[in-house]
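Section: Multi-chain targets

For targets with more than one molecule, the full set of components is provided together so that the structure can be written out for the assembly as a whole rather than chain by chain. Components appear in the order listed by the source. The example entry contains three components.
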Amino acid sequence: MRKVSLLLVVAMVLALVPTVSISAQGGNTFVFGEFGNAVQLDPAVVTDGISFRVTVQGCEALLFYDGSTTNPVPGLAKSWTVSDDGLVWAFQLEEGVMFHDGTPFNAEAVKWNFDRWRLTSHPQHFAESVFEYYDYMWNGFDEGSLIQSVEATGEYEVTITLAEPYGSMLNTLAMPMFAIASPAAVEAAGAAYGTPEVGYSCTGPYKFVEWISDDHITLERNAEYWGEIPGNVDTIIYRIIPDAAARFAALQSGEIDAFEGPNVEDLDAIDAADDLFIQMRGPLNVMYLAFSYRVKEFRDPLVRQAIAMALNRQEIVDAFYPPGAVVATTMIPPSLWGFNPDVPAFEYDPEGAKALLAEAGYPDGLSEVTVLPVDENNMVIEDAAGEVIPLTLYFQPVQRPYNPDGEGIGEAMVSYLADIGLEAQLGSVGDWSAYLDARSNGELNGLYQLGWTGDNGDPDNFLGYFFGAGPKPAEGYYYNQEVHDLLMQARSMTAQAEREPIYQQVDAIMHDEVGRIYVAHTGVPLAFRSRVSGYVTNPLGTEHFKFVSVE
Amino acid sequence: MATYLARRLIEAVPVIVGVSILVFLLLHLIPGDPALAILGERATEENVAVIRERLGLNKPLYEQYFIWVGNMIQGDLGNTVRGNIPVANEISSRFPATIELSLSALTIAVLVGVPMGILSGIRRNSLIDTASMFIALFGVSIPIFVLGLLLIYIVGVELHWLPFVSRLSSSVQLERVTGLHTVDAIIAGDWTALKDALNHLILPAVTLATVPMAVIARITRSSMLEVLNQDYIRTARAKGLRSYVVVIRHAFRNAMLPIVTIIGLQLGTLLSGAVLTETIYSWPGVGKWLFDSIIARDYPIVQSMTLIIAMIYIVVNMVVDVLYAVIDPRIRY
Amino acid sequence: MTTADPISLSEQKKTIQFTRRELILDRLILARDFLKRLWRSPSARIGGIVVLITVGISVGVPLFNDYDALRDRDLPSRYAEPDCVVKVIQSYINDYEEKTTFSNMTCDHPFGADKNGRDIMRRVGHGMSVSLWAGVVAVVFSLSIGGTVGLLAGFVGGWVDSIFMRLMDVILAFPSLLLAVALVTVAGANLQNGMIAVGITQIPVFARLARSMSISIRNQEYVLAARSIGTRQGGILFNHVLPNSLAPLIVQSTLGLGTAVIETAALGFLGLGQQPPYPELGKMLADSQQSLLSGKWWVMVFPGAAIIMIVLGFNLLGDGLRDVLDPRLKK
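Its structure, encoded as tokens over all components, is:
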């Protein structure tokens, strides 16, 4: 009998064991502490920063971002020309480049990749995957897309034809999701391409080795890499350690060499330690508190201004954000062109805020608000009766680069509001996806936290994405015809000098009407062991470990 | 015996069906859309529609249930919502971590709990008895997350004695054979790796072992007391048999039935505890993963995992019954 | 006396006609004897005292200390260290140059402050009250439903018994915490749903206990006798089965309270219980994780100690009660 139960256990264990082999590793190893499991290693179909931090080491796009800037520079494309009308782009490709699976990189491969992304009928445009970033950056698929055709006009020349001029074309092509994969590898693996068993096969400096879910991902140096690898790292290991405090402990003990986003509390200790140091990634983000314009009371600018004056944003930034973070006055961060330095900040003034509330007709404050209905165009119907609900401030349930502690900041915010007589509930709606769900359905009827990190270093990516279309549930039904027209105008222009004043004007308008309350722009700290050198931060977060050296 | 086991297996069917229906209903009642779990800040309506189609969420609920059951029976556990990765692969890469943690915890619990209980039982009302019963009481009274945090702070942060993050140091390379790092290290004959794996295992295993250890110690003690009061023990003593012979040969053997039962019942405790332990110690097992999957509404993962857990539970309970017969030959089925 | 009398332990007593005064006196004597026996058990004695303190804090703090969690904020005092007695002890243990003594200590934050600069002592006090309340509600819920189901199933038997007990098997086949997590995710994460979810996961424990009591009592001679003289089923259930099952159920409730407090705190720890900014011990412990490794132990230690105190108290009391109330379980 004992044997039977023992056999059972052994059988169970064996049944569960996959056959995974590890290739030998040697030389210099760089271990990066990651805060979660990657979703998938096919950059075309994912949106999460963890996956991109892996794929960007191995999968290269036609253009790169230059060092720590957001300027596009030659990548797999060594040069390009554009027609006068801005519609036809010809890219000359690097020659003699090989994919990790040994097949050659050429114009046909580039065309194949673009076709895979943009054509829903393409056999590798897998039905079970969502090519979300393509959809979003190039305005949809097939005929609807900005890209009308991609042709191999030579062994090493690709020509892309657009439907209309696109101001941020080059910045967008450099995004990590538009990296060129080996057509042979994707065809061979099918929908399993990018999963832990298969990984990726591209042209970059590091090849995929293995991925044990929730434990680690290993990459190794590509000996046949076509370009230069300035650093000396042979093996990259991403160790998955979800808790920021635990990552810090792992850094102290030497278990990992680097990680992103230490807790603000730990920064001093890292600074003080001899063998650790901090490097800040430049800020290209904004955290804000949005109004739902379905809330009748919030349609009064006096109430919105009262709320803006009630929050002591400097105190919040000092307490919760890493050093160097600043109180935000506009949507566009100061580091991006289009920023308007002349927009003043709302000063913290609870007495003034109370007076404004009284002027607006709420001398005793508010604890309940009226939610108005919307019509089929998402326009709020102002003279309808509406529904009375408790005043609520929704907080982000997860840590984001722009929001280190949504809950703590939310708790502080409701207490500031309570000081001027606005008794708000602190609202939570499940996890991150449930929160986003509620937001895109326009269910966050009150005040809600959110933020944005730039995708490609273009101001349209900040203002145009949010306020360019008509009133959207996801943006709290905000609508201002003037803002909308200005943004549409700026999008179709290509000269930066002409576009810049428009974005500045939009931010000024939105400040005057208190369209939204901006809280902070912040850099993102990265912590390292002192054996690491050469790490190049980039505000977009696409950072190449090929620059890294270890002792 | 065989007929008995067959009957037990048949009886388990309605429970498994009940579990599967309950899990299925619960998951589909969770508000929110799993499609958005994939799409994030940049979701559009068309994308959501594609994902819903892929997950078969547009079909009626009962149809979804039967499709799922059909696939399960054919051994197809489906793909994860996030990442579209086969669930079976994900389970097999994570399960060894939880098995290693749970088995180590159970081993610690038995190795500490049983002797503690026996000693307490023999030396009733002595200092040893009071001390071990207080430890046992403390063990059931301290929540896992409090003990885990305390151990991390004292042993890990202040004293720097043991690591408390993940399963193995980055510098240690180990070929994956069983996925149990300790076993793999022994197979490879790599003693540095074994030491490293054990070091990483100690804090989580001790944390997870506390509750079962305490429960086992208490049950062992009371079971021993009961047996020691029986006539045949008195007879044995009266016949002049030496004390430890009496205790080991007669008393403990007969006291084992309830102990074995309670060890079997600790399985649920271990799995609940694994959720918290794995969270606290960044342990890459199925417990934390299952919790995250519930929150993220990753249906295929949660459905498969709960069914597997329910089956393990049923199998373990049957194994316990079989052990009964081994321990006590008088029991016949 | 036709209604149920929980103290009547034997059929014989029921035949004696009490006057009202005698009845009260009788009960008082029983209660006194019971407390006397209870006091003799050391675990019940210590447990009782701890429980009294816990209940005192849990009732007293909200009664005498108004706490407006909504307005509580002092960001400049973020992570202020504990002062007062703790500081005095610290300065002696670590042998500081400038000693803090009882005469020169300050008592702004005896347990320190958290990430929003809120006083931890105050929040632990109010948090204990919440945790205890949550435990009580969960146990009352599972006792009333599990107890009823178990008693009925055992008493009626047959297919009712089979169905109910299979249902309990289904619940038991889930690890309890995961089931609670799933239930709360469905119903929405808040304290009320957390208490009920924990209550549901504990139902089988009470149901199985009540069922076994009910089956064993059903076959006792005095019940068979009552049945033979034509007492109705309902009468037997209320006059015999229920009163005689009470003792073990009370013991289990006391012990179950500890479990329920831990489980609701675990839900809070996982972010599925009490929602911010209101204090709850499990939630406070979860929040302490981010600052623990940078040495802010006070954010974790005090809420942790509070949970241990509650659970330890009830477990000790439960052990003692079992020894006194339920000699059958005493080995």
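The radius of gyration of chain B is 24 Å.
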